[in-house]
Amino acid sequence: MPQVRALIASVLRIDPAQVRDEDTSETLQNWDSLSSAMLASEIEIVHDITLDDSEIEQITSVRAVRELLARHGLSM
């Protein structure tokens, strides 16, 4: 899903080509807890949804972001 990768790249301020589907907070430069919170905020704003704390804590990989969006009936 290129749009998920683009969103993550935007928050991390890296080239979207650097974001792979299998990437996690461990493999991507700049992805820390603050970045996860910023990514959660961006998801909430763009999709007009509210994430609870447990969902925000799970934002640690590209796959987790996709799964989170799917649980909210969204796809990117």
UniProtKB/TrEMBL annotation:
Pfam families: PP-binding
All residue ranges annotated as the Carrier domain in the record: 1-73
SUPFAM superfamilies: ACP-like
Domain of life the protein comes from: Bacteria
UniProt protein name: Carrier domain-containing protein
Species classification: Bacteria, Pseudomonadati, Pseudomonadota, Betaproteobacteria, Burkholderiales
